[in-house]
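pasting for ref
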Amino acid sequence: MIKEPISQNLNPFSSPHEYRKTMLLHSLVKYNPENYSGKSLTCVFFTRFCGVGCPFCFFKSAPPPGKLSVAGHFSDDGVTNFIRFINQANTGYILVSGGGEPLNHKNAILRTIAEAKADRIVLVTSGSWAMNKKAGRAYLRQIEEAISKRETPCHITVRISVSEGHGIKLGTTPAKNLIEIFEEELRDHPYLKFQIHAFENDSMLYQILEHFDGHQIDSSEDGRASDDPFVLKVIPQKLYVTFQSGYRIIVGISKIFKSGLRPNLNTPDSLQESIVTYERDLIESEDNNSAIVDNADGRKGLDWSINYNGNTCTWQNQVNDNQYNLYEDSYEEILEGSLKDPLMLSYIDKGRLYREEIVAEVSPRSVLRTKGINLRDYSGTVIFEEEKTRLYYAIRAIQDYLEEGRINIDELQKLPDELCHLIYSDKKKTQEAYHNATYTIIDQYLRKEFDPIEWRDLFELIKLGHYDVTEEDIQQALTHYNSQPGVNQIASLEEIKHEIGDIERRLTERLMYIKPMNFDALEDKEAVNE
């Protein structure tokens, strides 16, 4: 039955956050968790901190402060909750990455190796802990000891990332030391292996190999072969290096992402290289759906992403109005909440191309912004930053599920009449309602407590073409800003200069929005435990 709207003046897109909140209260789409009962993959960032301080680092992973914040570094409780999540999520493959330098969080690394019920754990590292060969050997012995404590077998891979950028601070020493340790002492270990992760058009791999006379490099002939026999984790380009002793290692070659939070969308032609890299990777590595992982037995599992602040979602599927966090939410709550949300479920079901096609119906700029920023991990946050676009996509996904016969009609009928009317209408009418509403990113900021720095950063992004706003919208925003006490007056966006320095940290934290929690209480609890 098609419900008629209460009033023609009621347009859900005029207050999209409220209607989206209402939608999340209901289980609107039929889903079956058994469709994703295969082995899962989880990528985790244990810390945002790193002692190297590479000048190119996107995460701004400065050396850790005197007191580590729970918002940027797993606490002991966080590690416990992570292992519980892994052991309930039918995990086949754990990718420990960063963020910061994950192996600096030794407690998390050793506990995960000893306690997590996974078949494979890959430790991605800069190798900074092996600058001293003796220290590197000692850490690897601790990893061996943790392996020996396991109840079930698990293959552990230490995968060092090498690049000209890392070489600015680290040179070739960590990789050279680790190759020598594995070649001399660990080459026959049944569960502990070594790999190198290098990059296209980057010379660091070859600088490292210059230390080893008589080595041989061979290209893999198995194409997009998996890195694992059970969970199909693809290495798009793979080499083998064989040393004089006969010791052989895998080298994976990745694309170099030109990530940045301030691309100029007013000149889209300048972004083509970034866009091509972004799309190539999602096609070659993820088959255009990074939220799921194929299993060798034909089943599908979920591909989870866990941030250093505890935020948890399927990969590239974080949405800021429906977040889950290990410190508060159980695996069952995270799984159910992810499948219950039509926005998140449709990405799991249908992948990247479906999401981009729907969003582009009303906001091609949001799709361009996502590709221009070029950060795969946070593409969900970027493409759905605007609440109005978020609601449009959710409605369109429900419309498509309605055609597929997958809607719980009783639940749908509980929605406000004007929202139900839109869902039962066609795509054209939904688009008209979207464009008739004047709600913009500026309205989102008006709902928040005023912060002059946040508004200044918003003005720069508007100047760079990141949002669909009119000149009238901009003037209203400037009038609001200038009416606040104590601010330096801004007459036009032309006065906003390209700031260098702290803005990158601010925009990074803005992107990595944390589910609102009482972090002070978590920190106090951690202090008591210590």
